[in-house]
Write a structure and sequence with these properties.
β2 (14-20) and β3 (26-30) form a beta hairpin. By secondary structure, the chain is α/β, with parallel strands linked by helices. The chain contains 5 helices and 14 strands. The model has no long low-confidence stretch (mean pLDDT 97). It has one domain (3-203): Ribonuclease Z/Hydroxyacylglutathione hydrolase-like (Metallo-beta-lactamase, Chain A, 4-Layer Sandwich). The strands form 3 sheets. A 6-stranded mixed β-sheet has the order 1-2-3-4-5-6.
């Protein structure tokens, strides 16, 4: 059985996740907003196979460069945001000087596609493209866990007023790609506490 640990990192308290395989030998990182010491201690003795990005806003990618170099692991990102890792203007870090220095790193080694199956740490992660918060936003579904990025939060949804955001598109993504999952699917969002698909389908005031 997979295990995971959440780390709320940086000025925006962005959730990064370390996911570890059943025999506790292999791991991957989802959305490392910073190269946090506690996160890296969690990885001690593990083979880090990948960094998965739900999208490339600055608060989700601040630790990519350092972690990729330290662990020698590839980065996965949707091609709609292919150049966001290399461009501080596009990932937003250039516009938020009071929060972060400009962030730029090498492009992702691998591109993600809707419905793609990633075989990592001995299990399968399904990619669900959920544009609306940003053009390349994706969720990663593994068993009954959904790493949802900034598409769906507990009783809320991702903001759509940033470049590339679209409220109608986000609502459609949530209804068609997320609310179709079983009620007991655990939603692990990019900010804030976890929830379930069933709870959000019933209670979320933004998308019914």
């Amino acid at each position: 059985m997979l295990t995971f640990q959440r780390f709320a990192l940086g000025a925006l308290q962005t959730n990064a996740y370390v996911v570890v395989n059943e025999d506790r030998t292999r791991a991957l990182i989802i959305d490392p907003g910073t190269a946090d010491g506690a996160l890296m201690r969690k990885l001690d003795g593990l083979k880090v196979e990948a960094i998965l990005l739900t999208h490339a806003h600055f608060d989700h990618i601040g630790g990519v460069d350092q972690l990729r170099k330290k662990y020698g692991c590839p980065v996965y990102l949707h091609p709609a945001e292919r150049d966001w890792l290399t461009d501080a203007g596009k990932n937003g870090s250039a516009r938020w000087a009071d929060v972060t220095p400009p962030i730029a790193t090498e492009p992702a080694e691998h591109e993600l596609a809707d419905g793609q199956k990633l075989e990592l740490i001995g299990t399968t992660f399904e990619v669900r493209h959920t544009p609306g918060h940003s053009p390349g936003s994706v969720g990663f579904l593994v068993g009954d866990l959904l790493f949802a990025g900034d598409a769906l939060f507990r009783r809320s949804v991702g903001r759509t007023d940033l470049p590339g955001g679209n409220q109608e598109q986000l609502s459609r993504s949530i209804r068609e790609k997320l609310y179709t999952l079983p009620d007991d699917t655990l939603v692990l969002p990019g900010h804030g506490p976890e929830t379930t698909i069933g709870e959000e389908r019933r209670e979320n005031p933004y998308v019914r």
